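Take a careful look at the protein record below. Let me know whether the structure tokens fit the sequence:
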Amino acid sequence: MTPPPKVRLLESDEYMHPLGEEQNFNESMYINCFDHSSRLGIWLRMGNRANEGYAEMTVCIYLPDGRVGFMFNRPKISSNDALDAAGLTWTMITPFEHLRVTYAGKVLLLTNPEEMSDPRAAFKSNPFVDCEVNLDFRGNGRESMFGGEPETPHERPGEEFAKGHYEQLVRGTGNVRVGSDEFGVSGFGLRDHSWGPRYWQAPWYYRWLTANFGDDLGFMASRVARKDSAGVRGGFVWDSGTLHLCDDMKISTVTRGDEHFHHTVQGTLSSKSANRSWEFTGDVLNLIPLRNRRKDTNENWLTTRISEGMTQWRITGGAHAGRVGYGMSEYLDQIVDAKPVGLAE
């Protein structure tokens, strides 16, 4: 087995990187947070594509009553100097320890978030309401970081998804307002930061699972499949103050409906170095399907679906058996013949 590439991660990586020459250069930050008592969930993302002249801005709020506040926009940008557009602003306070994210603008209020399978119709048939997000996220310092930038290139030409990429479990506090509904937030989540060339069509499919059970326990599990190779599996577990790197991840999924949305998840993360494994199950509480489209060199449309499921996780074995937490199950699939390509996993 080929050993994973060595990576470096500096304080300077917490800020913006020089704009690359690639037309599809992307620098993005993503963060999620789930309040365990109210069961409100939120994730936010900003991806700068300055060479293409725009950013990808997303706000998604899972309200406790099942509605979802959602906004996507492509504001015009001309540089990669900051993640700050269309009302969404990211401010790094202290590297590896403190990040602030704010939003002021509109969200689409969806009673049935699965209507986003047809985004044009969903945006026409649902109301917009005012929204404010003010959240501070705090992490456990450099020792809690996963990933970085590999010393040698690790992706084949045309399959680039991130030159550098790292993640960290965090605690989030602040407040969220959606229309007339206001919520204080005290919860847990995960953030990531990536930079480099990216097309959403590069993976054949992937499964990205994030879970946080409290200050002492959480995980990220990743399965990235390539069309013509086995792809990669891995992740990490934060367990009682130690970050365990995992070199294997197994997953099985039960889907529902004609659109094959993921509904329940079972999986195992394994670490050879720690000689440990963590088994878990996940039940999707609410799901919103998103879509990305791009033309190939023959001017044919390629369609990618990214199903974003707020998920209740449960540890099913070992010292933490029975622990319940919350997070995301993000399923990306290329759509071929009207079906997601990753149904077997």
Observations:
- The helical segments are 119-125.
